[in-house]
Amino acid sequence: MAYYADHCDTFPFHWADPHVNSTLTMASGRFLSRLKSEWFLAASALTCALFWLSGEAIFSTLSNRWVLVGMLAWLLAAVLCSAISVVRHADALAEWLGEPYGTLILTLSVTSIEVMSIAAVMLHGENNPTLARDTLFAVTMIILNGMIGLSLLLGGWRYREQQYNLQGANAYLGVIIPLGVIVLVLPNFTITTPGPTLSPAQEIFFAVMSASLYGAFLFLQTRRHRSYFTHSGTIDHSRKLQRHRASPGRTMSPYAHVALLLAYMAPVVYLANRLARPVDYLIETMHAPVPLGGLAIAILVATPEAISAVRAASANNLQRSINIFLGSVLSTIGLTVPAIIVISHLTQHPIELGLQRTDLMLFILTLTMCVVNFSSGRTNVLQGGVHLTLFASYLFLIYQG
C-alpha cells in the first residue's frame, strides 16, 4: 500500500483525481437519465409478462363491460406508447441519416407494426375477412385527411403559406393513386370471383406488382432523384450529421437507437395479439360496427407518425410532413397489402379488399382532393380544412353510413 501511495502520481489516473470523479459522475448521470427516459420499456415488458402469465383466464370476464373497457384502454395505451417510442427512436435515426433515408426508416418501422398488428388480429378472428381492407382504408383516411388536414391547417395558420417540392409530391401521388385503385377499388369489378374479392392468381399478381412498384419508387427516392424529396433541391447530409454529433443534447449513439427501436417493437407484436381478443368480442358479441376493428389498428399505426408530421409542419418544415404522410400511405399500400396477401395464403384466411358504397366514394374523393391540393407547391389553411371535413365525414359514416 505504501508503494501505491508513494507512486500514485506515476499512474495515468487514480480515483482521487477530481477530474476523473467528475467524468464518472457525468457519465453515470447520463446513464441514469437515459434509463428514466426509457421507463416505458419496462412498463410494456411488465404488461406482456402479466398477460403471458395469466393466459386465457384474463379474458374470461370480458362479458363485464367495465372489464372490457378497461382492458381495451390498457392494451391500446400500451401498444400506442410503444409505437410512439419506436417512432421517437426512428426520428433520432432520421436526424443522423438525413432525408430521404430518415423518413424511410420511420415509414418502414410503422409499416412493420401495421403488418404485425393486422396479422395478429386477422389470425385470431375467424369472422372478419374485411379487417385488412378496413385497416388499409382507415389508415388512408387518417393520414390523407386527418393528418394532412391538421398539418396544413396548423402550418397555414402559423405561417400563412408553406412550400414544398412539387416534384416529390407528384412522385408519391403518381404511385399511390394507381396502387390504391387497383387494391381497394378494382376487386369490386373483377368477375373471376364473386363479391369484392380476387382470385388467388390475381392476388399474387397484384402483390408482386405492388411490391415491385414500391421498390422502383425507393430507387427513385434514395438514388436517382433524391432532390425531389428535399425542399431546397440539394442534400447536405454531412453538414446535418456534423451538427447532430456536435449537439450536446444528443448523447446516444445510432446503434443504441436501433437497439431500442427493436426492443420497443417486440411488445407491440405480442400485445397486438392480445388486443385481438377484446376487439373481436366487441365486434362479434356486442355487435359494434365491423370497421371499428380496422380503425383501432389504424389509430395505433398512424398516431405516432401523425405526431411527427404535425410537429414538422408546425416548425415550418412541410417537406418532411409530406414525406411522412405520403410515404406512409405508399408503404401501407405497397408493402402491407403484399404481406397480408401472403399471410392470407399461408394461413388459409380469406380477405376481402374491395371498398363498398360510401367508403368507395370517400376514397375516390380523397385521392381527387390530394391531386388538387398538391398541385401548386404551396398550401394554406383552406386546404387543411377541406381534408379535415372529409375525415370528419369518414368518422360519422362509420355509424351512420
TrEMBL record:
It is a multi-pass membrane protein. GO terms for cellular component: plasma membrane. It is found in: Membrane. Its main location: membrane. Keywords: Membrane, Transmembrane, Transmembrane helix. The chain crosses the membrane at residues 39-60, 66-89, 101-123, 135-157, 169-189, 201-220, 252-272, 292-310, 322-343, 355-374, 381-399. This is Sodium-potassium/proton antiporter ChaA. The gene is chaA_1.
